Structures are given as C-alpha cells and as structure tokens.
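Contributing new complexes? Match this layout with adenosine-5'-triphosphate.
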Amino acid sequence: MPELLSIRDLRAGHGDAVVIPGLSLTLAEGEALAVLGRNGVGKTTLLDSIIGVTRRFGGQVSLAGRDISALPPEARARAGIGWVPQERNIFRSLTVEENLTATALPGKWSLARVYEMFPRLQERRGNMGGQLSGGEQQMLAVGRAMMLNPRLLLLDEPTEGLAPIIVEQLLTSIRRIIRDEGMATIIVEQHARKILKVTDRAVILDRGEIVHQAPSADLLADPGPLEQHLGVIAKGAAA
Ligand SMILES: Nc1ncnc2c1ncn2[C@@H]1O[C@H](COP(=O)(O)OP(=O)(O)OP(=O)(O)O)[C@@H](O)[C@H]1O
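Output block (do not edit by hand):
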C-alpha cells in the first residue's frame, strides 16, 4: 500500500516543554495503528501534533506526500485528517444533526451512512449535543469526523470513561470503519488487547519515543513487550 502519513524526526510539545524529542513514523493507506503507552508518555501529544495543535520545534509531518507541518488545524482537517480528541469537542448547543453537518465535506460518508453506522444518533438527531450521554457523544464525535470524509482518522482514547457495553458497541463500529471501509486510522487506547484485535500494527511510546513496534497480531501472540512497557495496564486490559 502507498504511504499516506509520514512523520520525520518530529520534535513537539507544549510551551517550552519538549514532549516528543524526535519521532519518525509512517502509515500506509488503509492501515490501522494503535498507539500504546503508560499515562503521560506523549500519546495525545503525538496525535495533537498530527492535527497541529501542539508546538512544533522541528521535523516534518506529511500527508499523501504534502508537507502539512506549517498548516493550522483547520487546513489539516480540509487536507484529509479527521480528529476525535479525548474531550470530544462536540457542539453542545447544536443538535446532533447540526453537529454532523456543520463541518461536513463531500464524499461517500453522508448523514445516511453515519446514521446506518450509529442508529442511536438517528434516534437522537433532534437532541442538543449537551443532552447526550457520554457514549452518544463519542459516537457523535466519530460520526462528525467521518462526515469530513477524511483520508486519515485520529481517535484519542475513544472508549475512555464509557460503560463496558458501550465500549464494545463503539469498538464494533471502529472495527467496521477500519476493516470494511479501509479507513487509515491511528488510535490511542488504554484497552491494549481490545484495540490490538482491531489494528494492523502498534507502537509503544515511552517519554515521547517509540520503544517498541510490531504487528498487532504479534503482540497479541506474545504480550511480553506489553507487560514490559505497559506493566499493570496490559495485565488489567487482558481480562
Ligand atoms: N497542554 C499542555 N500543556 C503543558 N503540558 C502538557 C499539555 N498537555 C500535555 N502536557 C504534558 O505532556 C506530557 C505528555 O502528555 P500526553 O497527554 O501527551 O500523554 P499521554 O500519553 O496521552 O497520557 P494520557 O494517557 O494520560 O492521556 C505530560 O507530561 C503532560 O503533563
């Protein structure tokens, strides 16, 4: 598969703090990558640097061969990056349907397709974003990103804080988006084993650096590196 995303020697952080001291990574068209690591190692900062809301000290981010390093987040979204941040950022005083259509771009993902993926959103189409449950808000955030018809989807801890049954529903939808729709995706996730079943490849970060990378299937077959680098998180997620 041709290369979609290329990150070369990225140095990025917040304010004067360098969180990512020099990271290189590529993602192929249609590939799904899990980003794993303990709390505070820079997983969110990596995703935020791809969409452009961190401070870049050096290095380059390219999408489909185009250097997007100097573009503001809105321009990166228009260039083809759908971003679902940890805090979801839905418009609380717009309806579900308005949230979905407000920033939509043309392509195969239409309202009908998003409603087919998330029937609950159709039922709630007239409700305000602020009236939704946590799970519904997360579905709305993913649906809104799909309505951008992105080439690359960034998901930051999509299942965080959700009830187990909602986690399973959401992971089923994410699996469909990746497997059936072939969407190139980068997912930060605490449920390591669950997300390894959905992704092709994984990187483990520590202090802003990639300390291990492997096909997801290899990490599932031999969880040694998960236990080494994630410790209790991996054991907890094994249940
Ligand atoms: N807006 C910010 N301003 C200053 N420092 C920040 C900011 N966001 C994150 N940091 C710091 O950057 C480091 C990496 O944080 P980051 O959120 O990227 O890690 P993470 O691996 O995603 O962790 P978590 O799993 O807890 O979300 C941490 O030390 C954090 O305190």
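Reviewers usually confirm one structural detail per submission. For this one: The pocket of adenosine-5'-triphosphate is lined by residues 14-15, 17, 19, 37, 39-45 (CB under 6 Å).
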